[in-house]
Amino acid sequence: HWSRVKGRLRSTVGEDVYSSWFARMDLESVQDDSVHLSVPTRFLKSWIQAHYAERVLNAWQAEMPQVHRVDLTVRSAMRNVAPANKEAAAPAEARRTETSNNRHAPELRATATAPVSASHEALGGSPLDPRLTFASFVLGRANTLAHAAARQVAEGRRGDPVMFNPLYIHAGVGLGKTHLLQAVTWAGNSGPDRKVLYLTAEKFMYGFVAALKTQTALAFKEALRGIDVLVIDDMQFLQGKTTQAEFCHTLNALIDAGRQVVIAADRPPSDLESLDERVRSRLAGGLVVEMSSLGEELRLGILKSRVAAARAHHASFEVPEPVLDYLARTITHNGRDLEGAINRLLAHSKLNATPVTLEMAEREVRDLIRPQEPKRIKIEDIQRVVARQYNVSRSDLLSSRRTANVVRPRQVAMYLAKTLTLRSLPEIGRRFGGRDHTTVLHAVRKIEALVGKDVALQDEVETLKRQLQE
Ligand code: ADP
Ligand code: MG
């Protein structure tokens, strides 16, 4: 259960939040309706309790409904230090994986045992993924503008006039925000004379709060202001009045000093409800670019680049063109799922030593497939299905006969036509033997009223709807 609970937490709060706050949370015990968890520092404990208590409980309840209490305690220092040391030596790739659950360990340890270095640790920036560069970023209609702006920022030199500040990129989950921001950071830092700092909003908060606690806030602020390009990811997670006020100061100070700020969030500045109005308008005052959902061509491009990347280590791995087409056509608009699909195909073909086929792909990625567009229901279908259900003929429904055994089915059919299609009342009347729109309206109201009272009718209507929607 514990690993599934962690999985749930990770998917509700996102990878960055998860690794900042939960990666070092351990399960101590489960007893009847209560769960006992532990974290290495007091600060972490109070932070989680203040901000995430409910989500932790929800994650447990989703796995074990009987759980009604989650206790969080600080575990003894002895257990904190050992894993933290290992981390420093781990290769970059291993540090990214979820098995290494102490990605931020040195920083946590710093706050626990060596408070003075807290602000320095915070300024180390968030971990960067070596694969997220401009070279691996695939261009398409959805992201041309964002990409051009990001490139411009990355290629600027110290002292260049800043063209748009801040650069604010927003898009839904998995559409490449983090990729683009990290690409800016890699590219910017490869030049000699600029300091680009990539921080998730969570990390910014953490760094700042930690600095406050250890009275190094001033140093933290000063250090932040020495940055040439400040890159903040997942801005929507910037919470708390003090942090926001501090962020606002930093933003103003950097912009006034002609330094570049780049921000990504899952929504436009105007929708960051919890943010102070002044911050919002400052954010909106630069260049705001949206990346829209990945079109099919872009999805195909991303798939191909993922396959190429995988082939660097697994030369025999091949994904036939029809499989790529299939994936690009059917997988949701989310870059993460595309990556996930390729990983699964790779794992499957490696483990079973079999080539990738269309059948295999269909089986392996079934849960990533975008739900079918709701079926367009035709009025003729409604008439046919209703006629069959009530044992009358379709021409009866269209006729002017007014016997009870035809009137009710006809009204039901009109009601369904109104609720399941986008046709107007006059159009529906026309399709039912040239009736007036008021007749249709009367039928719709009649059935609406009856469905509320008559359980049998309600049942019939539901059954008909289900048949039509299948
Ligand atoms: P976001 O931060 O917007 O949620 P990410 O940047 O984490 O999304 O992207 C999710 C995945 O999709 C990553 O593996 C990323 O490399 C990939 N991806 C998204 N857009 C692109 C693109 N244009 N080119 C290449 N890979 C992309
Ligand atoms: Mg992201």
UniProtKB/TrEMBL annotation:
One of its GO terms (biological process) is regulation of DNA replication. Keywords: ATP-binding, Cytoplasm, DNA replication, DNA-binding, Lipid-binding, Nucleotide-binding. The keyword Metal-binding does not apply. PROSITE patterns: DNAA (PS01008). Residues 83-92 have a biased composition (Low complexity). It is found in: Cytoplasm. One of its GO terms (molecular function) is DNA replication origin binding. Residues 378-447 form the Chromosomal replication initiator DnaA C-terminal domain. ATP binds at residues 174, 176-178. Residues 1-89 are annotated as: Domain I, interacts with DnaA modulators. GO terms for cellular component: cytoplasm; plasma membrane. Residues 163-289 form the AAA+ ATPase domain. InterPro entries: AAA+_ATPase, Chromosome_initiator_DnaA, Chromosome_initiator_DnaA-like, Chromosome_initiator_DnaA_CS, DnaA_C, DnaA_dom, DnaA_N_dom, DnaA_N_sf. It holds the Pfam family DnaA_N. Residues 83-124 are annotated as: Disordered. Domain I is involved in oligomerization and binding regulators, domain II is flexibile and of varying length in different bacteria, domain III forms the AAA+ region, while domain IV binds dsDNA. Plays an essential role in the initiation and regulation of chromosomal replication. ATP-DnaA binds to the origin of replication (oriC) to initiate formation of the DNA replication initiation complex once per cell cycle. Binds the DnaA box (a 9 base pair repeat at the origin) and separates the double-stranded (ds)DNA. Forms a right-handed helical filament on oriC DNA; dsDNA binds to the exterior of the filament while single-stranded (ss)DNA is stabiized in the filament's interior. Belongs to the DnaA family. Oligomerizes as a right-handed, spiral filament on DNA at oriC. This is Chromosomal replication initiator protein DnaA. The gene is dnaA_1.
